[in-house]
Automatic annotation (TrEMBL):
The name this protein goes by in its record: Cation transporter
The Cation/H+ exchanger transmembrane domain, residue ranges: 15-421
Membrane topology according to the record: Multi-pass membrane protein
Entry GO terms, CC: plasma membrane
Database matches in PANTHER family: CNH1P, NA(+)/H(+) ANTIPORTER 1
GO biological process: proton transmembrane transport
Tree of life domain: Bacteria
Length: 431
């Protein structure tokens, strides 16, 4: 295929990406599924000379593109959540805390044990697989997340996710667990490069697990609060960006919060999500939040298009060739056993009253437990870790992670629409 033909194929793919969300809305398909399968078909075509779709050789490109995609998605999630996070409302976030503090560590531990003891993967690589595959994805999970910020009118009218507990739980989980996977990525890197846990465990616990998380949340929230005060309430009306309807404030907030958090030494992913929440909290019902969310959404769709098309092409040209029985066992175990079981346990033990905000009915717990979409964040973490330390059998790791994403996109994409439609109406917002 010539370079000119690449433009033609890319244009057709972009056109399909524009149509896909509308065409698949009423059937058991998702836009990410269509784009990924389209990329796999494109991958069967001859490629221009010099093109390489090997993720190991192009690790830096993969790292930076997926990094931007996750950051954009996290800002979108922070702006989309209508439910405030405060001392008075933190109990209504009960499903989120349970999925983060119970389900996520259980998932990492289960993948580690499966990889190390059953699949014969080296301990550092098994732990890295757990860290990469445990987080749910904010980029590809649009079908099961809240639609966006509700603004204007009364507080009751502007908080539909109060009656949409499954979507709220999955959205808030995806917003936070990408940043919370970082400590375990570092643990895998340290295990590969520094040896025994006794050599680095205490420092990892104090800094990577606690210190950098706290810094990420604090710095991101301060940046968001400061920008919100300036944009919505500045004494000088010329500085009130929201009154001018400038939606690029969301992009500025994303870049500024990420840079400030990383410079301070915290986790930038957490910083961006915290910034989005804090920015939203200053004037919760202002219409400008919807405009900002829309701009972020456009950027996210463009990045999804690029990443899924190239991931699909890489699958058919290189990555599926490295899939063996171990990768298949890992993917099916995670999608059908590990994630559903770990999340169901976390949501069911001492469950919150379903009649209160943050409470889930039994059917809602099953749906929230099952729909843990894996995606772009897993690719980012694998690329990031590969840039820090030599990974044993790195090519197989890429094949295993990519196959897991493929399975997750197909299974969750096909099941999301019918599953959510069968729930109580308070949890259904077809999108």
């Amino acid at each position: 295929m010539s370079a000119d033909a690449v433009w033609l194929v890319a244009g057709l793919a972009l056109f399909v990406a524009v149509l896909a969300p509308v065409l698949v809305r009423s059937i058991a398909l998702s836009a990410p599924m269509v784009l990924l399968l389209l990329g796999m078909l494109i991958g069967l075509l001859p490629m221009p000379d010099g093109w390489s779709l090997d993720p190991v050789a192009g690790r830096k490109v993969v790292e930076h593109v997926t990094e931007v995609a996750v950051l954009v998605a996290l800002m979108g999630v922070g702006l989309a959540l209508d439910r405030p996070l405060s001392r008075d409302t933190w109990r209504s976030w009960s499903p989120t805390w349970r999925l983060l503090l119970v389900a996520m560590p259980l998932t990492i531990a289960a993948i580690f044990v499966l990889g190390w003891t059953v699949l014969g993967v080296a301990a550092p690589a098994a732990l890295l697989l757990g860290a990469c595959l445990a987080p749910t994805d904010p980029v590809l999970a649009g079908d099961v997340q809240v639609d966006g910020p509700s603004t204007g009118g009364s507080a009751e009218e502007a908080e539909p996710d109060e009656r949409n507990e499954v979507r709220f739980a999955l959205t808030s989980e995806a917003g936070l667990n990408d940043g919370l996977a970082f400590p375990f990525v570092y643990a895998a890197v340290f295990l590969a490069s520094r040896g025994s846990v006794s050599e680095w465990g205490a420092g990892w616990l104090a800094w990577e697990l606690v210190g950098k998380i706290l810094l990420g949340v604090l710095v991101g929230a301060l940046v968001g609060w400061g920008l919100g005060r300036l944009a919505f309430r500045a004494a000088d009306h010329r500085l009130r960006i929201a009154e001018r309807g400038e939606p690029l404030l969301a992009v500025a907030a994303l870049v500024l919060s990420y840079g400030a958090t990383e410079v301070a030494g915290g986790y930038g992913f957490l910083g961006v999500f915290a910034c989005g929440l804090a920015l939203r909290s200053v004037e919760r019902h202002h219409d400008h939040h919807r405009a900002m969310h829309q701009v972020v959404g456009y950027l996210e769709r463009l990045l999804i298009l690029v990443i899924l098309l190239f991931l699909g092409m890489a699958l058919t040209r290189t990555l599926l060739g490295g899939v063996d029985w171990r990768a298949v066992v890992l993917a099916f175990a995670l999608v059908f056993v590990i994630r559903p079981l770990a999340a169901w346990v976390s949501l069911s033990v001492a469950a919150r009253d379903p009649e209160r905000p943050g409470g889930l009915q039994p059917a809602e717990r099953l749906v929230a437990a099952f729909f843990g979409v894996r995606g772009v964040g897993s690719l980012y973490y694998l690329a990031y870790a590969g840039g820090l330390v030599a990974l044993p059998d790195e090519q197989w790791l890429w094949s295993a992670v990519a196959f897991t994403i493929l399975l997750s996109v197909v299974v969750h994409g096909a099941a999301s629409t019918p599953a959510l439609r069968r729930l109580d109406p308070r949890s259904v917002q077809p999108g």
